[in-house]
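Same chain as my last thread, 145 residues:
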Amino acid sequence: MAALAISNVAETEHALSAPLGNAEAVYKANLDMKGFSQEVVRVVLLDSQLRCITKVEIAKGTVNASLAYPRDIFRPAITHASFGFVLVHNHPSGSVSPSEADLRLTKRIVSGSRILQIKFLDHVIVGEPIDDRQGYFSFQEAGLL
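reply #2:
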């Protein structure tokens, strides 16, 4: 188990050094979230080259829900003067299907990012790959942004 944990850390660190221009890169940079036993909401702040400035945990919840508010999501983006950000959260169940709450939050973040003129690049749900399905869901790839 220790070797697997070290492998995940190494892969995550390597992924963070490259531009996070797509959902797969974001997923690889947040592999540590797969092992969380509760929902965690994280903002990945990006520079203009889409490289990670920092990752900030916004909220921790239960096994199937977390409360994240737009003000908490935008605060670190403003503080770090980031070009843009990706919202990332996990589903401890392994399912990557977005809930109604996920859809509502994403719509509110889209509206706020337009007002604040901070690029909201994607909302990625981290889960487990099952059969031929990816281990993540991207709102951008699904056309929901």
